[in-house]
Fold these 3 entries.
Entry 1:
Amino acid sequence: MAQLTDDCFAFGGALVGVATALDDLLGRLAPVTQAEELPLRRALGRFLAADVTSDRAVPPHDNSAVDGYCVYFDDLDPRGEVRLPVAGRAAAGHPLPAPQPRGTAVRIFTGAPMPRGADGGPGPDTVLMQEDCRIDADRVVIPRGIKRGANRRKAGEDVVAGARILAAGRRLRAQDLGLAASIGRTSLSVRQPLRAAVFSTGDEIREPGIPLPEGCVYDANRTTLVALLEGMGCRVTDLGILADEPSAVRQALAAAASGHDLIMTSGGVSGGEEDHVRGAVESLGTLHFWRLAIKPGRPVALGQVDRVPFFGLPGNPVAAMVTFLSLARPLVLRLAGSTEPAPRTFPVRADFAYAKKAGRREFVRVRLEADEGGGWKARKFARDGAGILSSMVEADGIVSLPEDLVDLVPGAAVDFLPFAEAGL
Ligand code: AMP
Ligand code: MG
């Protein structure tokens, strides 16, 4: 387990591009979770802690890909039909016990090992689908035209002995677990889940389910952030809503710092005089306001309570999500032991004009529609305030407009980031 430095989020204060900030910050972080061995059944969604190398080939033997007849290709006639006696039967799990003599065919079924060759020589190498053959008394009639090696699956065609089949840092999916099982593994070394504490602050923020006093709003962000973190495999402690009261916030943060690998909140860190989170974090550790050149955004507060990373996201629900996706998510993934590549973007056509401020990256919520040319066009939402959470619900993803762009014209190519790429 790595130890973070005392002030790993220190920041000079100037406006910084999100890619630069990310590069810089990722370089300062290391995985903080320990490895544990888990049965395959319990490893879904965990980050692999060590490479998995196969000590065997899969499949272990050459075998038939179809139900049919297995022959020596050299016994066939390229100019016409051949009639071969059927000598033997090989089914999956029931290999032919003896070598197959030349000049014969074997009735074979999918997955059955290819028979051995006569006199220790090469065995039959070709399988005909039963639909392509005819039975005539005790013989099978093989048509002309089959290729040497047809319908034979080679030993090791899936996994070669000695191959690395899964790389450390990968998030385990169903097919990854299946592949591990296919080489005979019953367990894997995975990272323990990152333990995250999440809370909200603000005198106007109230718990859903209770009547809403005048001037207040329900807490949307905590539910979103808990779900985002759990979706990434974190084990989340929900600390609820902390009152805008310095000693309460301080106490809660100090308590959260033991037993958690990160603390995350939204709102209350913009530096206004009602924002008590800032003072509380600073009194327990360090806090830096990273002024990201993005919209929607506002500064993201990054700090440490003891040595536990603290993420203070903006309060506006869309800004909280966008800063989570563009900055917090990759940092959390690094702490959790992930080496997954960044979410991929895909080029689509903009179906809107957009006047943009130079020098910052802007994220525009869009819905994709098929365009006339067989590609996709991105439709922007009319309402794009940082508090319009319903637009995130309706969107398929976001278009990322680069720093140097000022005037987007309809039809221009833009980078589309599907929410699904970021696990949303
Ligand atoms: P702040 O960053 O505290 O200045 O908050 C900015 C805006 O986001 C304000 O309108 C807050 O009411 C709103 N906000 C802050 N926290 C939350 C939350 N947990 N859920 C929904 N809205 C919030
Ligand atoms: Mg506030």
Note: The domain at 346-422 is CATH 2.40.340.10 (Beta-clip).
Entry 2:
Amino acid sequence: MNITIIGAGAVGRLWGCKLAAHHTIHFWTRDNCQKLAIHLSGTSATSSITPEATFQFDANQPTLLASSEVVLVTVKAFQVEAAIQAFKAHLNPDTAVVIMHNGMGSQQTVSALLPENPIIYATTSQAAFRPSENDVRHTGLGPTLLGGINPQAEDYQALGQLFDDALPPCTWQDDINQPLWRKLAINCAINPLTALHNCKNGELARSEFNRELTGICQEVAEVMSAEGYPITGTELRQQVDTVINATADNFSSMNQDVCHQRQTEIDYISGYLISRAATHNISVPYNQRLWQAIKDMEKHYHDQ
Ligand code: KPL
């Protein structure tokens, strides 16, 4: 298959290299380069599935985008709209568009921008980062789940296998919003706290964070249940604790965004939770406080 990856951040690069084992991969990026070289490596924990290799890809060629059967959008949630505006004119209406980002809240915009295309959302627990410009390091394994959000995407279950062949485990979901909500709960708990306290994910296992983590999970559970995905705060807290332990040595993406004074995904994580809570008249003070604290940090980036 011909696949275009939109965005050349760590996640886009990781999937590009992995999908290249069976498919022809082309990148679409903001810098308009014509070629992209990516050196992929893995930590000792993942090296058995991520041998070191350097990959060469074509980039930013409208004819390659037009002939793609699948487009995988890996930019951050707040960049999705601008990214789609930039490639939309070259997109075939039959091309399946897979959106993979942290957080929720972009679905209406994407559906309105691409009314004809099959639209699929994905959430991944694969972890990667870019130690330098051309390098991507695969630092953690985890499941990837994907599923369609419009009628045009109904017959696209085979994409589950395509992604599974590249980087398992990956499964197709009949209702992708349920796993997206579960991942949102994990991000609501881990991302803002690790950004505010400038710590690794594993430090959240300390007792001083216990009350706040429980409060966050309780609030997300209430909103999730009101949205039609019944779950308890205790269940969400267990999932959060599992991720804190499994990724103990990692810095969350929001921690890294704040460290490098980049815009964070807070509006699509705690911000999305707060907006859904408001429609159900549910008060979410723990998440509200974290959202405000991160917004304040972003506002003062250039003060020092
Ligand atoms: O998704 C993540 C992120 O960093 O954005 C978690 C799950 C918190 C892992 O670090």
Note: The chain has two domains: 2-174, 178-299.
Entry 3:
Amino acid sequence: MYKTVVTETRFTDFVGASLVGCNFSGARLVNQNTDSIGTNLTGSIIPDEPLIRSKLYNSILPNGTWGPIPSKNLVVNGDAEQNKLIANRTYLTGWIVSFPGRIIAMLVIFYISFLATAVPGLLSAHQSNDNIVSLNIENADSGQAIPSIMHGVILETNINRGDDGGLYAELIYNRAFQENGRSLDGWLIFGQASANINTDEPLSTALPAQMRFSINAQSNNISGFRNGGFAGINVAAQNYTASFFYRPLTNSYLPGNTLSIGFSDSTGQIIYAMQTVNVSKAPINQWYYFTFIITVVNAAPTSKNFFFIQFPSGSQGDFEFNLISCFPPTFKNRPNGARNDIAQVFSDLKPGCVRLPGGDDLEGLSIPERFIWNNTIGFLENRPGRRGRWIGYNTQGFGLLELLTFTEDIGATPILAVYAGYSVDGKAVPEDQLQPYIDEVINELDFLTASADSNKMGGLRKRLGRSQPFDIRYVEIGNEDFNGYGPQTYGYRWRDFYNALSQRFPNITFIATTTTSITTPPVVDDHNYQVPLFYIENFRRYENVPRPGPKVLVGEFAVINDDDSQMDNPWGSGRISFSSMKSAVAESVYRIGFERNSDIIIAGLYAPILQNVDITQWTPNLIVFNASSVLKTTSYLAQKIFAENLGNIILHSTATNSTMTHQSVQQGQEGDGKLGNLYFIATKNTDNNTLIVKLASVDSNDTIVKTQIHGSMASATGTAYILSAGPGVDPSKVANTMDNPNAVSIVTKSISSINGTWSITIPSWSVVVVTLPL
Ligand code: AHR
């Protein structure tokens, strides 16, 4: 039995809903990342309390106008189970909501009718025995175009040490002594020596503090210092390129002028590789740069290794070091480049687009700590870095050029996020002080896109080794300005940035982070971190966005909690460490929705992508790694089969069961995009005349899909890519983890069509992609 009380509701649940004349007075507010699209609130009374992390797109507002209202986010209190209102449904006009403890008759009537329409649909689908579906696909040579960038990711710097300590191949942690203010964090001193931070005669303005290593009396043993990397160093049989800046002080004495550098175990007793470096060229009291190769012949058995620099017995005096660096071979051999194994897995995902460099880390913890593009280019000794939004220090060694070069190397389209005068501390640049920040972005875009020969910034790019402009088609102005105090100032910030940038860069599509307090931008970014049921219930979310209107970039989304009862607080109890099969299926349902709404969705981006499992602030993530291995999560595998099999047009398709006919399927109703617990889309790659069918099942039983293609009688052999939890298994309990990295893998099966007819069994809780020549 269901209790006859609606206990909680919020605008998030009201996508496309009609809530005409409702009275929400007295509703409690929650602090959640919420939004709503296409809600009709004409005549409703909404309490005027300040809200955080919410937004409302294209809704009919209480006063009957279209457009944004200040963030609103409602919870109606009650004492029963938590149940949600469903999107796309017309609720009772004039509904009055009761508050703590009081339930009025009208609400009871409403809720009974709600149960009658909403819940049985879910239950019957789960319990259905009728799991034979007939799928009709109409072959065609034209149809709604699907953006080629459709399935992407956000690559946010700093989070989970995704760049420093992750994708950025640098092995040395705190290489320029910038962590924890200025410190020797991560450096261990051994032998008859001591070390401290010194700021006299620094290496550069950007790197103002160095290590002073002191051997006070003439030593009779080796001394030195070692660094354990970002939670370990992988020592493999290969060449490493190491370097440092070195300054011997007047009182220094180094027998033979030779240092020994290499890799050891944590005790220093086992040396895996060592290289001697003659530093006699370094003049007394002056900085001198040394670079050299360390060759490892036999790999170390674990990654609990250290990089060391050691002084011979008899050394004495003070020696200074800065920017101590060591790189393994990098992805595509780029200098200062990406870690090969992570980059390869990233590349194999075949993301259509990469949004960078954030996220919150674009904004920075405060205005001076924002992403300042020109601090991230050029010689490493001239990059000051900044305090990371998520953890420690952000060296920005993997700076703007490295990020964009990597994106280009993997064949993805960048979605460049630019700083828009608002930081994580909630402070905004006042409008009369905004111009320098706008100029900063103009210079950034000139730097990336202008001619190397006729533009000063383009010339700078060329001097840094890149003459060809980057292909920047999308620029997002800011990040999550629906948060905190963002909405209060985004109106002028968006307007001033957009007007200046769109005039100067007419070929770039600009993306707003919210429609709260701005008029219709070309594209708006929509973020969702939720439970699986949210994505399943919101399959038609974007079908209900009014057209015409801003296009939508789903710039961040992921299942972060597998417990469906936590829909109103996915950040709380049940937050997952690794995505499960249940998460992957729910995300795939949502992705099918993206493709189906290709007229309005430009792309959907999983977030975040990278996680150093030993230095984590946010879970789950798509690619998880430690110092020596890389994990493809369940969500990764699901996104991969979607991204690498992307059609360029949508084909009309309908699904029916034994009680339906294809002719009677209505747009937006059962049979269109979904039937019971099966979600689907048929698309075509017209370049190679291939049918691509994507299916996601949230059923606990297998579903047999019998397919008939109309307009192609071809008999052909194709491939099904199948990702499933396995029969009779709770899909929320199945996940690829560091301990069990291959719990789920992609299974391929051959599919044969005879005269355009073929069948496939879709396992319970699975994601399936079928490709078939037409
Ligand atoms: O993806 C992690 C964070 O989530 C991003 O930094 C921010 O944009 C969002 O709140």
Note: The chain is about 15% helix and 30% strand.
